[in-house]
Amino acid sequence: MEDAKPKLAPATSLQDIISHAKEYGFVFPSSEIYDGLQAVYDYGQNGVELKNNLKSVWWKAMTQLHDNVVGIDASIFMHPLTWKASGHVDSFNDPMIDNKDSKKRYRADQLLELKAEEYAANGQPEKGHELLLEMARLLGENDLDGVRELIISEGIVDPISKTANWTEVRQFNLMFSTQVGSVAEDSSLIYLRPETAQGIFVNFLNVQKTGRMKIPFGIAQIGKAFRNEIVARQFTFRMREFEQMEMQFFVRPGTEMEWYEKWKEARLNFHKAVGLPAEKLKFHVHEKLAHYANAAVDIEYQFPFGFREMEGIHSRTDFDLKSHQELSRKKQQYFDNDLDENGKPFGNYIPYVVETSVGADRLFLAVFCNAFTEEVVGEGETQKTRTYLKLHPALAPVKAAIFPLVRKDGLPEKAQQILKLLRSDFRVIYEERDAIGKRYTRQDLIGTPFCIAVDYQTLEDDTVTIRHRDTTEQIRMPISELKQHIGQAVSMERILEQL
Ligand code: GAP
């Protein structure tokens, strides 16, 4: 018997994703006419819509679905002492190493992590685990000579020159800096924020007081962050300018692990709700903790280049608020008048913080990779590959495309009327060029969930055909029902109701 289900074409490579993203207006290399700038990308006409939809659903999931989470929008530039307090001036470093033969630069920790993955792939996961522990110990002690020796003793060679002719390991601070002030003598060093979180910490009391917020409560923010990444590869996965969606949840000390577990689950559910399959998501508990954390886990997604971090969830203790209090000499305390088990108010304390931090660009890349579908359809000589983006309709850049069957006899005018009817509710487009099959294909390639065709029957009875992207099925429908039919499917509610 014939298999009714379409067969999936061979696995997608990152190169397929990069090409598709460029060809269909999702992601372009930055300043491409000058041959681009490494690890910097621009979002095109469709990419910006998809990214905005992802940011919007995250914002709603955080602020609308939680009574105790509010949003802010802090500046990229902050007082330089912010970064001293946060530890970024002293510890936001990556250990780098150069190969003297290939002249290529690598992150020393990543070379060792790759080696550990190699052990695991060869059935020696314990050996890999031991290697990671040893690396964490050496980095924790800032023993950079030890890290170099470990690279050499593990027989790690440069993938290009195939030699182990390594330089010493050096720490490299990832923050970009510039000057403020109009006159050179007046200017002072200022950083481009490497995370949005600090904008939240320095506004903790402003928001708590003006919003009369009671602990536990959270502050969410979406914004640009900048890091001078040593190795910037894998498309938008690791960029030098990127966007973060972060939320700091302020809790009573001692309750942080309970909230950490709750947010872990909530965030995993979010990724499933936007359409990422459970089997492509997993938690990865950190062996090596950042300088501010007492527990940390990543939510990893299976990108075409393997499982990698998409979101970080950290229990940040009171590290940040405490350091800001010390450096600014402004109290960062909260008065908790809830009663403890002895009937006494908990009183003044610096709250503990549980952070959720997801890169908008990494979420975009995960959703885009997951949506990219190639199916083999037809049999024998008519067999071909159908490519489309199976995006959640609420995330799709264009919700519906409207086509007159032909460019005459009043059909374009009728189609334009439908466009006007729908355009204030949804992003819809009108297309009259090329055969209708080609127009369907173009919409499939950008993930448009509905195509509406206007034909001669429309002029008689005000009905159209509406084609569904995933099934390619077409049904006849009165124009008066379109708004409801499309609205139902593309509403953000379809995602939020799963949370
Ligand atoms: N405030 C905590 C923090 O910044 P992080 O693990 O360094 O933690 C959080 O970053 C998230 O930001 C990551 O999980 C990732 O999604 C995103 N991110 C970090 N560096 C990035 C880069 N160079 N390019 C794109 N996204 C990045």
Helix and strand arrangement:
Elements: E1 7-8, H1 14-23, E2 27-29, E3 41-43, H2 45-64, E4 69-71, H3 81-85, H4 88-91, E5 93-98, E6 105-107, H5 108-121, H6 125-140, H7 144-153, E7 170-173, E8 177-180, E9 188-191, H8 197-201, H9 204-210, E10 217-226, E11 241-251, H10 256-273, E12 281-285, E13 295-303, E14 306-317, H11 319-328, E15 334-339, E16 345-349, E17 352-359, H12 360-371, E18 372-377, E19 384-389, E20 400-404, H13 411-422, E21 428-430, H14 436-446, E22 450-454, H15 456-461, E23 463-468, E24 474-478, H16 482-490, H17 493-496
Bound molecules: glycyl-adenosine-5'-phosphate (GAP).
The site of glycyl-adenosine-5'-phosphate (GAP) has 19 residues, from strand 11, strand 14, strand 17 and helix 12.
Specify the CATH architecture of the largest domain.
2-Layer Sandwich
Number of strands: 24
Total of domains: 3
Compute the gyration radius: what is it? 26 Å
Oligomer: single chain
EC number: 6.1.1.14
Subcellular location: Cytoplasm
GO molecular function: ATP binding; bis(5'-nucleosyl)-tetraphosphatase (asymmetrical) activity; glycine-tRNA ligase activity
Protein name: Glycine--tRNA ligase
